[in-house]
TrEMBL record:
Name of the protein in its database record: Putative Peptidoglycan O-acetyltransferase
Lineage of source species: Bacteria, Pseudomonadati, Nitrospirota, Nitrospiria, Nitrospirales
Gene Ontology biological-process entries: alginic acid biosynthetic process
Record PANTHER family: ACYLTRANSFERASE, TEICHOIC ACID D-ALANYLTRANSFERASE
UniProt keyword annotation of Glycoprotein present: no
An annotated Gene Ontology molecular function: acyltransferase activity
Acyltransferase as UniProt keyword: yes
Spans through the membrane: 6-23, 53-70, 82-101, 121-139, 319-342, 362-380, 448-469, 493-517
Bilayer topology term: Multi-pass membrane protein
InterPro entries: Ac/AlaTfrase_AlgI/DltB, AlgI, MB_O-acyltransferase, MBOAT_fam
UniProt subcellular location: Cell membrane
Enzyme Commission number(s) from the entry: 2.3.1.-
Organism of derivation: Nitrospira japonica
Keywords linked to the UniProt accession: Acyltransferase, Cell membrane, Membrane, Transferase, Transmembrane, Transmembrane helix
Length: 520
């Protein structure tokens, strides 16, 4: 669980941060960056010991190739292109070997009359993000040969531990100037640390208070789909909506934590989410969701394929290819390919619709966009094509509104004793006599209000309000940190304290789950 483990939060991270800030304050900039690079590599080795040698080989190899590309004179463009293609091919080959070998082997095996192997070995931690990061670096240095960087700077750029697991994907021009700026004298570290703690607290709240409980709603439903069980329409919609909100709060929570941890060092990572469920079109959605990833797809796949410069048919083919490859990047499964194909189709329809100049009311466009995104997330979550087909039948209502199993348990859950975590709280109201008598029946309203079903409804309502109408973390933090105003005001400290307290309570009541995007 990395960022939310007690060892990391209360021992490892404070030690790394304090030593870094002391070295920086003492004007020992190279030592501070060296300490940061060493700490990042050791943390990666702690999280995934078996993959640490691969990280070091990749680090050294890509830096060497980048330097060779930089040294090639502009007149020898073909030689520069050969080195660039070599670097991209090596990176993609490593990614394909560790992440897609079993997937493609299972496509070929039936053709050769061999049985399939359904137990792929786990991929190295963060290999997809590391691959994209280093490919982007090689492309950037091939375009900007005036760039010169030391191995120390490059090591921090690649291994910086807040972003190494799941992004955001940073580019050379975003990160290197900040490393240079760390050489400047630091008059006060309070603003950056205070801002970092604030953003981290928001991310922790999203993860523990919202994402993990939503996961406990979605997982059993998708588990029944995986087991071959047909579920009712209501269950299906509850499952996909729970996963839709879970995925957003899990990944945006991770991003907030990464940005907060980095900000305390004086490094600003790029924004990765901008209220995506408030989008009014699929095009708008991809400008708001996982921004660094969608930007990477645009710059390194869609535009090189030709973008919209080679006619309408080619544009839509490029959209479909880009999104299918983006789906496959998430995992070696046909369900991810279908998810990517759905979004490629959505984007094509969206672009064609724009050509008609017909404008829909905002509430219709937002609602339709959200439903399309939710349906695609269902395919993203299921673990097989067969499970996806069962989900589609259930969403369409072909399996009834509720399964018999759900029908029998739902009414009982509403009126049963409250959720175990609230037994003591409920007993206080019982002792005070808060009861409604209906003939020979006695109903305690607090039992209903604190039942599992009602708590789930509160959870969905909170997630929906924050997703559809709430401000983004970035906009809220910017509104709080006005120039010249102190960062640690009593009001702001109270808000941060309540977020951290709610996250602590949630971590006790609900076992924290692993970050969803760790697998990608």
């Amino acid at each position: 669980m990395f960022f939310i483990s007690g060892d990391f939060l209360f021992v490892v991270y404070p030690v790394i941060l304090i030593v870094f800030l002391v070295l920086q304050k003492s004007s020992l900039r190279s030592l501070a960056l060296g300490w940061l690079a060493l700490s990042s590599v050791l943390l990666y080795a702690w999280w995934d010991p078996a993959s640490a040698p691969l990280l070091l080989v990749s680090l050294v190899g890509n830096y060497w190739l980048g330097n060779r590309i930089i040294r090639v004179p502009e007149a020898a463009r073909s030689r520069k292109s050969i080195l660039l293609i070599l670097g991209i091919s090596l990176n993609l080959s490593a990614l394909a070997y560790y992440k897609y070998l079993t997937f493609f082997a299972n496509i070929v095996r039936p053709l050769l009359g061999l049985s399939q192997d359904n137990t792929p070995s786990p991929a190295p931690l963060g290999i997809s993000f590391l691959t994209f990061l280093q490919i982007a670096y090689l492309v950037d240095v091939s375009r900007h040969t005036e760039v010169r960087t030391s191995f120390l700077h490059y090591s921090v750029f690649v291994t910086f531990f807040p972003k190494i697991l799941a992004g955001p994907i940073t580019r050379l021009e975003q990160f290197f100037p900040q490393l240079q700026a760390l050489a400047q004298p630091v008059h006060s570290i309070t603003p950056q640390v205070a801002e970092g703690v604030t953003v981290f607290a928001i991310g922790l709240f999203k993860k523990l208070v919202l994402a993990d409980p939503l996961g406990h709603v979605a997982d059993p439903i998708f588990g029944r789909l995986s087991d071959g069980t047909n579920i009712g329409g209501m269950e299906a919609w509850v499952g996909v909506l729970a996963y839709t909100f879970q995925l957003y709060f899990d990944f945006s929570g991770y991003t907030d934590m990464a940005i907060g941890l980095a900000r305390a060092f004086g490094i600003a990572l790029p924004q990765n989410f901008n209220a995506p469920y408030q989008a009014t079109s699929i095009i708008d959605f991809w400008r708001r969701w996982h921004i660094t990833f969608s930007t990477f797809l645009r710059d390194f796949l869609y535009i090189p394929l030709g973008g919209n410069r080679k006619g309408l048919l080619r544009q839509h083919a490029n959209l479909l290819i880009t999104m299918v490859l983006g789906g496959l990047w998430h995992g070696a499964n046909w369900t991810f390919v279908i998810w990517g194909a759905l979004h490629g189709t959505y984007l094509s329809v969206n672009h064609l619709w724009k050509r008609t100049s017909i404008v829909c009311p905002s509430w219709i466009s937002r609602g339709l966009t959200f439903v399309c995104v939710v349906f695609a997330w269902g395919w993203f979550r299921v673990d097989s094509v067969e499970g996806g087909q069962r989900l589609c039948r259930s969403l369409a209502g072909f399996n009834g509104v509720m399964s018999e199993r759900t029908n029998q348990s739902l009414v009982g859950k509403v009126f049963e004793t409250p959720a175990p975590a609230y037994d003591y709280f409920s007993s206080v109201f019982h002792d005070m006599g808060f009861v409604v008598s209906l003939g020979r029946w006695s109903i305690y309203p607090v039992d209903v209000l604190l039942s599992e079903v009602m708590l789930t409804m509160y959870l969905f309502a909170t997630a929906a309000v924050i997703s559809f109408w709430g401000p983004t973390t970035d906009s809220w933090v910017r509104s709080q940190g006005q120039p010249g105003s102190p960062w640690f005001t009593p009001c702001r400290a109270f808000v941060v304290g309540m977020l951290l307290y709610a996250a602590f309570v949630a971590s006790i009541q609900v076992h924290p789950g692993a970050f969803i995007y760790r697998q990608f």
